[in-house]
């Protein structure tokens, strides 16, 4: 029971060993971290992940988390030396999920130690012995174990791929030289490897240099950003201090104006109070005299009248009291006007200075972009605003000025697409081509991209086509694996395309299509203005007819691409 339990729960069903770094997946089964990771890595292209034990499928790759309990138990079993009665990969050489198996083992396959390039098979130590002992195999070339040896067989002639066609940039067999590759520039695979090895060395040196340059630029940019932060902080502190000083200055001015208004108000008030008091006294005296005159006027005593007449009828002496002339519009209008002028001048000055400051701040460059030539021997800083903008082309002669010769990239081609004519023609065949499995290759749709990355300018190209096909452009980041819409030209936000068939045209972007009317033409012209965000398709005949025009904000370089129904040929324009 103990052995059964140990075998069931503490051994990995992939490598048949005691669990190493055990992880449990959602269905409950446990595996070694490396085993299940390697097993599921091979399923990344399909997007469907299967439990090797119960065959339950997961549409999303489960996250693997270490199981602390199983790890502890497995360690105890390992230290105790308990025999779990399972085969050990290290002990008998059983091939694990990431190993190359022996092609001649029956039943449980052992790990291969060598592969034969003549036999196109892999051998374990036991089955490799004839290659060392028999004279028949003496000339065979043995190399370290290789997987997928079937890729080294010509799919058309079932012969070993031993030659390389430089014209079509692909590996071929001897029979290919007398058929579709007749007359092409053909060398041995070994010779081409030697040439490519030199280029590889140059590429490695170039990439290393580029990496060093980028690291240096990154460090400089980080230093610049730090300096920018410090400079901005200092500018903010100093600006804040100066504005506070200006505010204090304005506050002092406000205080002085308020004080002056108060002093003038008090002086005028005191003067007015003194005048009021004098006027009130005079009014009292005048009223008394008025009463006396009234009584004198009414008296019947002639002697009394005459004795008081001179006193009462003598004009009143105003003395020093000035004549009061009241100003009904009395106010501090001049003060208000002066303050208003100061406010207006400050606002005007502030607006002008703010505009000047904003302009000077915006003109501070953090970095400049550079265009590097292919041979990396010169650098040119491009200022877009300083370049005159040419008018958009109208005639075919105008478009041809921007012609660029494109070449198909075999590393992106679907395996049923045969590329020829110096990488300018592609035909869909029923036979699988001997292409390597590259991350760039479309594995489900008959599509191919060009090698050229188009960016920062105007470009024009023409193609001839037959059978239903699509023509367009895509970012390098477009998906290549699987059957989803993310891989199809025009069916995602990373590509734009025109679908052409004998029945008509339709324009596609991000799974949105628009029916396009226009004359049927076996020749299509494409105009791209990457900077302006324009992509236009034209039917080429006696004249150019605009089929559809996309307007977008292109944020990455664009790669021309094709979905092939029968054939597509990239034309040369004279």
TrEMBL record:
Gene Ontology cellular-component terms listed: cytoplasm
Superkingdom of source: Eukaryota
Domain spans labelled B box-type: 149-189
RING-type domain mapped to chain residues: 12-55
Domain named B30.2/SPRY: residues: 386-574
Keyword Repeat found: no
InterPro entries in UniProt: B30.2/SPRY, B30.2/SPRY_sf, Butyrophylin_SPRY, ConA-like_dom_sf, E3_ubiq-ligase_TRIM/RNF, PRY, SPRY_dom, TRIM8/14/16/25/29/45/65_CC
Coiled-coil ranges from the UniProt annotation: 211-238, 262-296
GO BP field: innate immune response
Keyword Metal-binding: yes
SUPFAM superfamilies the record matches: B-box zinc-binding domain, Concanavalin A-like lectins/glucanases, RING/U-box
Keywords: Coiled coil, Immunity, Innate immunity, Metal-binding, Zinc, Zinc-finger
GO MF assignments: zinc ion binding
CDD domains in the record: Bbox1_TRIM8-like, Bbox2_TRIM16-like, RING-HC_TRIM39_C-IV, SPRY_PRY_SNTX
Name of the protein described by the UniProt record: Uncharacterized protein
Species in which this protein is naturally found: Periophthalmus magnuspinnatus
């Amino acid at each position: 029971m103990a052995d059964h339990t140990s075998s069931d729960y503490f051994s990995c069903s992939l490598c048949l060993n005691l669990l190493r770094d055990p992880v449990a997946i959602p269905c409950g089964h446990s595996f070694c971290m490396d085993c299940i990771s390697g097993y599921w890595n091979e399923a990344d292209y399909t997007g469907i992940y299967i439990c090797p034990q119960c065959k339950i499928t997961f549409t999303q790759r489960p996250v693997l988390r270490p199981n602390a309990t199983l790890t502890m138990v497995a360690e105890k079993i390992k230290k105790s030396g308990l025999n779990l009665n399972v085969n050990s990969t290290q002990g008998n050489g059983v091939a694990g999920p990431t190993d190359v198996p022996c092609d001649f083992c029956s039943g449980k396959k052992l790990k291969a130690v060598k592969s034969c390039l003549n036999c196109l098979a892999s051998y374990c130590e036991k089955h490799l012995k004839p290659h060392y002992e028999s004279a028949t195999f003496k000339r065979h070339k043995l190399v370290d174990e290789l997987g997928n040896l079937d890729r080294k067989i010509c799919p058309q002639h079932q012969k070993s791929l031993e030659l390389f066609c430089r014209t079509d940039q692909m590996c071929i067999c001897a029979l290919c030289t007398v058929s579709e590759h007749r007359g092409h520039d053909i060398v041995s695979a070994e010779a081409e490897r030697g040439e490519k090895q030199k280029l590889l060395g140059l590429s490695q040196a170039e990439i290393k240099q580029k990496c060093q340059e980028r690291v240096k630029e990154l460090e400089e940019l980080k230093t610049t950003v730090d300096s920018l932060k410090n400079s901005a902080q200092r500018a903010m502190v100093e600006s804040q201090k100066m504005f506070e000083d200006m505010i204090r200055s304005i506050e002092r001015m406000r205080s002085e104006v308020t004080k002056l208004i108060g002093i003038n108000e008090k002086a005028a008030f005191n003067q007015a109070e003194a005048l009021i008091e004098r006027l009130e006294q005079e009014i009292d005296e005048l009223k008394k005299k008025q009463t006396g005159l009234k009584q004198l006027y009414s008296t019947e005593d002639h002697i009394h009248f005459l004795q008081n007449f001179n006193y009462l009828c003598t004009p009143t002496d105003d003395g020093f009291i000035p004549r009061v002339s009241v100003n009904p519009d009395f106010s501090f209008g001049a003060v208000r006007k002066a303050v208003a002028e100061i406010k207006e001048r400050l606002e005007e000055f502030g607006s002008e200075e703010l505009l000047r400051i904003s302009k000077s701040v915006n003109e501070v460059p953090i970095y400049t972009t550079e265009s590097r030539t292919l041979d990396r021997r010169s650098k040119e800083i491009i200022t877009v605003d300083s370049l005159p903008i040419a008018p958009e082309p109208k005639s075919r002669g105008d478009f041809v000025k921007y012609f660029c010769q494109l070449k198909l990239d075999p590393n992106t081609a679907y395996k049923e697409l045969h590329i020829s004519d110096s990488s300018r023609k592609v035909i869909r065949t029923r036979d699988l081509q001997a292409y390597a499995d590259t991350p760039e290759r479309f594995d489900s749709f008959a599509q191919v991209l060009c090698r050229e990355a188009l960016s920062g300018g105007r470009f024009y190209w023409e193609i001839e086509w037959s059978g239903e096909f699509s023509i367009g452009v895509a970012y390098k980041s477009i998906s290549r694996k699987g059957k989803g819409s993310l891989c199809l030209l025009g069916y995602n936000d990373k590509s734009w395309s025109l679908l052409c068939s004998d029945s008509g045209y339709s324009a596609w972007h991000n799974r949105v299509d628009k029916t396009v009317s226009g004359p049927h033409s076996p020749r299509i012209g494409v105009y791209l203005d990457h900077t302006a965000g324009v992509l236009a398709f034209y039917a080429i005949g006696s004249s150019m007819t605009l089929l559809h025009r996309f307007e977008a904000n292109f944020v990455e370089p664009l790669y021309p691409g094709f979905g092939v129904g029968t054939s597509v040929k990239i034309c040369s324009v004279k």
